[in-house]
Design a protein that fits this description.
One of its GO terms (biological process) is L-tryptophan biosynthetic process. Keywords: Amino-acid biosynthesis, Aromatic amino acid biosynthesis, Decarboxylase, Lyase, Tryptophan biosynthesis. InterPro entries: Aldolase_TIM, Indole-3-glycerol_P_synth, Indole-3-glycerol_P_synth_dom, RibuloseP-bd_barrel. This is indole-3-glycerol-phosphate synthase. It catalyses: 1-(2-carboxyphenylamino)-1-deoxy-D-ribulose 5-phosphate + H(+) = (1S,2R)-1-C-(indol-3-yl)glycerol 3-phosphate + CO2 + H2O. It is globular and about 50 Å long. An 8-stranded parallel β-barrel has the order 1-2-3-4-5-6-7-8, surrounded by 5 helices. By secondary structure, it is an alpha/beta fold. It has a single domain, classed as Alpha-Beta Barrel (TIM Barrel), CATH 3.20.20. α4 crosses α5 and α4 runs parallel beside α12. It has 12 helices and 8 strands. β3, α6 and β4 form a beta-alpha-beta unit. Bound molecules: ligand LARABZUK. The site of the ligand O=C(O)c1ccccc1NCC(=O)[C@H](O)[C@H](O)COP(=O)(O)O has 21 residues, from α1, β8 and α11.
Length: 258
């Protein structure tokens, strides 16, 4: 069983429990549910292309940073000129929560991605109700039919969709018209090794009408300069910023060098 299998098995149980407490109808009545969203895909094309992540810990790094307030991190990223922010909302493996998303929303106006392991439409409603502009779909844990239906559901709520892959098979099943951004995740989930070569190898299979995003293991500006000629317009960066005392300041220095 891989770490992703474990996370997904837990996620199914978590969603089933939550549904007993808060119905989809109640989620639709949350004040933020009717908020007008902004497009993360467009922001990537028009700005720095950096999606800066809030990430306290992860299966590959037990502690990254637990001492910061999410609203300070969010404000710092927005001021730095990031095109958007990824907010991890998984609690068990990443130390995140939907409250993090809500606080990041309250502190900023730029596009927010709910970074979650989505297995059910319910989580897409939660994303919208807590102020997200975009959701992540992980091809490794979804069927093609689920990618089609979840992305269509998100688009109907005016949320952008980033669908991420680790290999060619996952990428090919992610090529769906209701997906806006196709992400290549550079982290091998069996070994946790990261290599931006994965992005370079797989990008040839991405049609030009999708925004191309490279994710994970980006730790310097030269990686971005290497990836841009391959057509990447989005770059998801977590640990490199979050491991510092001031992620916003780190993002500022990084973006100024682009
Ligand atoms: O980061 C992990 O260890 C991880 C393990 C299992 C599933 C997903 C995982 N990470 C999620 C991400 O995709 C990254 O947080 C994101 O791309 C940023 O990566 P990085 O810049 O390397 O922190």
């Amino acid at each position: 069983m891989t770490i992703l299998d474990k996370i997904i098995a837990d996620k199914h149980k978590e969603v089933a429990l939550k549904k007993q407490l808060i119905s989809t109808r109640q989620l639709e009545q949350y004040p933020l549910f009717d908020r007008e969203t902004s497009s993360l895909a467009k922001a990537l094309q028009q700005g720095s292309g950096i999606i800066a992540e809030h990430k306290r810990r992860s299966p590959s790094k037990s502690v990254i940073n637990h001492s910061l307030s999410v609203q300070d991190v969010a404000r710092g990223y927005e001021t730095a000129g990031a095109s958007g922010m990824s907010v991890l909302t998984d609690g068990k493996y990443f130390g995140g929560s939907l409250d993090d998303l809500l606080l990041a929303r309250a502190a900023t106006h730029f596009p927010l991605l709910r970074k979650e392991f989505i297995v059910d439409e319910y989580q897409i409603l939660e994303a919208k109700a807590h102020g997200a502009d975009a959701i992540l779909l992980i091809a490794a844990s979804l069927t093609k039919e689920e990618i089609v239906s979840f992305s269509a559901f998100a688009k109907a709520l005016h949320l952008d969709v980033l669908c991420e892959s680790h290999n060619k098979e996952e990428l090919l099943k992610s090529i769906v018209p209701t997906v806006d951004m196709l992400g290549i995740n550079n982290r091998n989930l069996k070994t946790f090794e990261v290599s931006i070569q994965t992005s370079k190898d797989l990008v040839t299979f991405i049609p030009d009408d999708f925004v191309k995003v490279s994710e994970s293991g980006i730790s310097n500006v030269s990686a971005i300069k290497e990836l841009q000629p391959y057509g990447f317009e989005g770059f998801l960066i977590g640990e490199n910023f979050m491991k510092t005392d001031n992620p916003g300041e780190s993002a500022t220095t990084f973006i100024q060098q682009l």
